C-alpha cells in the first residue's frame, strides 16, 4: 500500500460581509485561519460557526481564489480542497437567515442595564466620591463657595474688568491672546448678560422662569470682527444681541478684551500700499 501524505493545511482569510454596508465597504468580520483541504464543506461550516456565530445550516460559503472566478461551495459533502484553495484565498461566510432572525449584538437599546443606586454608591469606601470626601474637594471643601456665591463673584469680576478697561459699545478692541499674524480685532457692539450662553456652575435651583436672575448673569462682550473669523452673526441660541454679517460676530469674556486705537484691517492695508 503506497504512503499517502497528509494534505498540508492552507492559511485562508475568513470574512463575513456586514448586514449593513459601512461607508468604506469593509466586512464586519475578518480573521485568518488554517484550513485542511480534506475537510468537507459541512465540516468547515461547523468550525466557522464558532468564529462567525452563523449556524452551519444557514451558511453559504463563497470561495475566492486569486486568478479564478468566485465559487459558491453549495455541496456540503464536497471537499473544500476541491475548490482550489491556495495562498491568498478567501472564504466569505454569508448568513442566509432573514434579517429579523439574526441576533444583533451591536444594538444595545434592548439590553437591560444595571444602574447603581445613589445610596449604594455613596456608601462605597473605594469610589471617586469617597476620595473627594476624604480630600475635602469640590462641594466637600468647607471653604468652597456655593453656586450662587461663585456666580456673584464672577459677575463682580466681569464688571470690574469692564470698568477698568473702559469696555464700551463702539470702541475698537482686539481679542486676547493675540500675536501676529493671528490678531483678531473689531468693534465692540454689545456689553452685558447673554442668558442664552449657559453660565458655568449654574444650577436649576437658582433659575427663575428658566433663567438666572439678572444679578447672577455673567457679563459678555459682543464684538463685530473685521474679518470672518467669528462664530455667529451677533445672535446666540436664537436670541439676537447685535447686528453683523455671518462669521463676523463673537462673544468673549471681558478679561479677553483689550481696548485701544486699533484701526480696521483695511486701513492697515491702505497704509502698507502707500509705503510701497
Question: How would you summarize the topology of this molecule?
Answer:
Blueprint: E1 10-16, E2 29-35, H1 41-52, E3 59-64, E4 71-73, E5 90-95, H2 118-123, H3 128-135, H4 147-165, E6 172-175, E7 185-193, E8 219-225, E9 235-236, E10 239-240, E11 249-252, E12 257-259, H5 265-275
Parallel strand pairs: 1-5
Antiparallel strand pairs: 1-2, 3-4, 3-5, 6-7, 6-12, 7-8, 8-11, 9-10
Pfam family, one: CAP_GLY
Protein name: CAP-Gly domain-containing protein
InterPro entries: CAP-Gly_dom_sf (IPR036859), CAP-Gly_domain (IPR000938), Ubiquitin-like_dom (IPR000626), Ubiquitin-like_domsf (IPR029071)
The total number of structural domains is 2
Q: And the CATH topology of the largest domain?
A: SH3 type barrels
Strands side by side in the biggest sheet:
2-1-5-3-4
Give the proportion of residues in helices: 10-25%
Over all CA atoms, what is the radius of gyration? 34 Å
Derived from helix and strand composition plus strand pairing, the structural class reads: alpha+beta
CATH-defined superfamily of the largest domain: CAP Gly-rich-like domain
User: What would the average pLDDT be, to the nearest integer?
Assistant: 85
CATH class of the largest domain: Mainly Beta
Amino acid at each position: 500500500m503506497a504512503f499517502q501524505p497528509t494534505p498540508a493545511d492552507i492559511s485562508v482569510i475568513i470574512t463575513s460581509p456586514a448586514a449593513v454596508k459601512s461607508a468604506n465597504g469593509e466586512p464586519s468580520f475578518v480573521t485568518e485561519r488554517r484550513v485542511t483541504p480534506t475537510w468537507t464543506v459541512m465540516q468547515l461550516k461547523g468550525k466557522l460557526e464558532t468564529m462567525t456565530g452563523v449556524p452551519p445550516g444557514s451558511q453559504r460559503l463563497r470561495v475566492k481564489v486569486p486568478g479564478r472566478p468566485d465559487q459558491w461551495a453549495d455541496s456540503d459533502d464536497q471537499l473544500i480542497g476541491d475548490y482550489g484553495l491556495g495562498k491568498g484565498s478567501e472564504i466569505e461566510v454569508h448568513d442566509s437567515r432573514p434579517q429579523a432572525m439574526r441576533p444583533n449584538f451591536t444594538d444595545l437599546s434592548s439590553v437591560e442595564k444595571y444602574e447603581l443606586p445613589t445610596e449604594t454608591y455613596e456608601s462605597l469606601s473605594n469610589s471617586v466620591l469617597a476620595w473627594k470626601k476624604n480630600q475635602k474637594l469640590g462641594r466637600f471643601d468647607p471653604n468652597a463657595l456655593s453656586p450662587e456665591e461663585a456666580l456673584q463673584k464672577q459677575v463682580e469680576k466681569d464688571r470690574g474688568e469692564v470698568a477698568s478697561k473702559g469696555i464700551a459699545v463702539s470702541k475698537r478692541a482686539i481679542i486676547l491672546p493675540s500675536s501676529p499674524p493671528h490678531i483678531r480685532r473689531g468693534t465692540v457692539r454689545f456689553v452685558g448678560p447673554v442668558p442664552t450662553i449657559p453660565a458655568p456652575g449654574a444650577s436649576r435651583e437658582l433659575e427663575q422662569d428658566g433663567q438666572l436672575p439678572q444679578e447672577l448673569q455673567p457679563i459678555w462682550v459682543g464684538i463685530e470682527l473685521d474679518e470672518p473669523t467669528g462664530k455667529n452673526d451677533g445672535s446666540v441660541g436664537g436670541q439676537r444681541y447685535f447686528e453683523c454679517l455671518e462669521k463676523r460676530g463673537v462673544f468673549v469674556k471681558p478679561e479677553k478684551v483689550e481696548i485701544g486705537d486699533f484701526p480696521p484691517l483695511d486701513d492697515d492695508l491702505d497704509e502698507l500700499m502707500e509705503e510701497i
